[in-house]
Amino acid sequence: MTAFTAVIARDLRLAWRAPADSATVIAFFVLAVVLFPFGVGPEPQILARIAVGIIWVTALLACLLSLERLFQLEAEDGSLELIVLSPAPLELLVFGKCVAHWLTTGLPLIAVSPLLALLLNLHVDGYAALLLALALGTPTLSLIGAIGAGLTLGTRRGGALLPLLVLPLYIPVLIFGVAAVEAAVAGLPTRPHLLLLGGLLALGLPLAPIATASALRQATA
Amino acid sequence: MNDFAGSGIACRRGERLVFANLDFHIAAGRLLTLVGPNGSGKSSLLRLMAALAEPEAGVITWSATPIADDPDAHRARLHYVGHLDAVKPILTVAENLRFHAALRGTAPDDGRLAAALDAFGLAPLADLPGRFLSQGQRRRTALARLLVSPAPLWLLDEPTLGLDADAQTRLAEILKRHLAAGGLAAVATHSPLGLGESTALELGRPR
């Protein structure tokens, strides 16, 4: 447990002292969303119709942006070998890194999303569902992303390979994340979609750290 | 008594068989130095000893139990200092060491940390971020990990690289103390450690 909390505390401290990485992700999220009204036109009805989709797709891409560095820096400076050599289970330490990743990227994304929803004229009834869906969906993005980051570690074109590997796996989160908000706007129950998002998270919580840990063991062997 | 041994070990890196049919034995309180030309497999052997990689053939044992049977227990008993220093540029020297102690499951202990910093002459640098350290100071920080959490087996890859004469003497002293306390060490090195008697394993000989 000492090692688990130490990994989270260290990653948070690193993010706090060098906020540029997290700030880049948030800035990308905001800027990319703001581009849509320019591209699609300022028609409020059209924007309201596509608001959820834009926010979710942009959130996926923003999350991807930060994933490449998740294990890259650790591998370059030798910390990864020592993490693998820790007597604590590697799966637990990987989970710690996912928690820290979510706290430094997923959580800020959720925090700015209402502002962007406002900008895109999202229907009032959609806000609560959007926040809930993002809260359930973004941890899954971090967990799946960690698998991709682990697998592409040490490959020469890791940065280009990562989206190809991870984006297809993000599709279920995207589908149910968008469906939850659209159901809320249409006055339908959001519960089924949120439960499915919760199910994806429940699936990812144990499986992603196991897969990532074995990818990291391969990468350091 | 602890004892660390390997028999009939073969190591493959990609297509190349780095070495084969290699035996080693380290008794408690003993130092094994790994010598040999570049590319002879010193680092590869240390990585096998640390269970970072698995040997192509042969078995490595700790007190007659194969380390592959219980890799968690093996990781708990070893310190590995590789080529890379694992010093985060944004964290201070003390923070770096505290993290590595916690990573090995040791609760932060200020007394032990101060002793480790002192042993490598790092005490004045404790609050300096890693990015301001010279190469030798980063190396000292990496070596100070050996003292922030206890482990009977030390695996060191070229530990003297970048160290000045003073730090080399300090390292020799610390190694001597570790061995006197019944610890074991395997050190890959090109320069003599100044420890007097030690067993040398020569790699890269045609066999």
Can you offer a commentary on this structure?
The complex is a heterodimer of chains A (221) and B (207). With 221 residues, chain A is mainly α. Chain A has one domain (2-220). Helices cover 86% and strands 0% of the residues of chain A. Chain A is built from 9 helices and no strands. In chain A, helix 2 runs antiparallel to helix 3, helix 3 (44-67) packs antiparallel against helix 8 (158-185) and helix 7 packs parallel to helix 9 (191-220). The radius of gyration of chain A is 18 Å and the shape is elongated. Chain A starts with a helix and ends with a helix. Chain B has 207 residues and is α/β, with parallel strands linked by helices. Chain B folds into 2 domains: 1-77 and 152-207, Rossmann fold; 84-150. Chain B is built from 6 helices and 9 strands. In chain B, the strands form 2 sheets. In chain B, strands 6-7-8-3-9 form a 5-stranded parallel beta sheet, with helices on both faces. Chain B has a 4-stranded antiparallel beta sheet with strand order 2-1-4-5, covered by helices on one side. In chain B, strand 4 (57-62) and strand 5 (65-66) form a beta hairpin. In chain B, helix 3 runs parallel beside helix 5 (135-148) and helix 4 (110-119) packs across helix 5. Chain B is globular. The model of chain B has no long low-confidence stretch (mean pLDDT 91). The chains are: A mainly alpha (221), B alpha/beta (207). Chain A binds chain B through residues 2-3, 5-7, 10, 13-14, 17-18, 76-79, 81-89, 93, 220-221, and chain B through 50, 52-54, 72-73, 75-76, 78, 80, 82-88, 90-91, 95, 99-100, 102-107.
